């Protein structure tokens, strides 16, 4: 079992930055990947970025490349999502999730989820 707790969401203005944190506990393996997702009402959760726990290999969705950065702090069991130049369309509930699958860029392979944190970007 893996437990994940997100924090760092809030209300910001367009153009601002925000950093989300995901604290992970439980059984984490070197092959575990942590992904950040977001969801708006009525739509599926979109995978934004992912990072492998060991080695640090990353994946980014085209929609966030160049604006969002995923990183990890293994000593603190934390994965961060730095979000820059936020836009109103970035408004969503943001989730972190974990998978032991090799296909960390596949949103369907994530098994463990946090409770989500709301990000609202005003224009």
Model description:
The strands form two sheets. Strands 2, 4, 5, 6, 9, 10 and 11 form a seven-stranded mixed beta sheet that branches. The protein has strands at residues 2-7, 10-13, 18-26, 33-39, 46-52, 58-60, 68-73, 78-83, 92-99, 112-113, 117-122. It is built from no helices and eleven strands. The termini are far apart. With 123 residues, it is mainly beta. The mean pLDDT is 95. 0% of the residues lie in helices and 52% in strands. Strand 5 and strand 6 (58-60) form a beta hairpin. The chain is globular, with a radius of gyration of 13 Å.
Features:
mainly beta; 7-stranded mixed beta sheet
Q: Give the percentage of residues in beta strands.
A: over 45%
Query: How many separate helices?
Result: 0
Helix content: under 10%
The residue ranges in which pLDDT falls below 50 over 5 or more consecutive positions are: none
Distance between the termini: 40 Å
Please give the radius of gyration in angstroms. Answer: 13 Å
Shape: globular
Q: Sheet bearing the most strands, described?
A: 7 strands, mixed
Q: SSE order, as H and E?
A: EEEEEEEEEEE
Sheet/helix structural class: mainly beta
Overall pLDDT:
95
Number of strands: 11
């Amino acid at each position: 079992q893996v437990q994940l707790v997100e924090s760092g969401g809030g209300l910001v203005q367009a153009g601002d930055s925000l950093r989300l944190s995901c604290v992970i506990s439980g059984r984490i393996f070197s092959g575990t990947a942590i992904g950040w997702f977001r969801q708006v009402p009525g739509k599926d959760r979109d995978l934004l970025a992912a990072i492998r726990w060991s080695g640090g290999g990353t994946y980014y969705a085209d929609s966030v490349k160049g604006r969002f950065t995923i990183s990890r702090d293994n000593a603190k069991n934390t994965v961060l999502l730095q979000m820059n130049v936020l836009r109103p369309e970035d408004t969503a509930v943001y989730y972190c999730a974990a998978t032991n699958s090799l296909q960390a860029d596949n949103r369907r392979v994530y098994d463990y989820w946090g409770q989500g944190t709301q990000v609202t970007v005003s224009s």
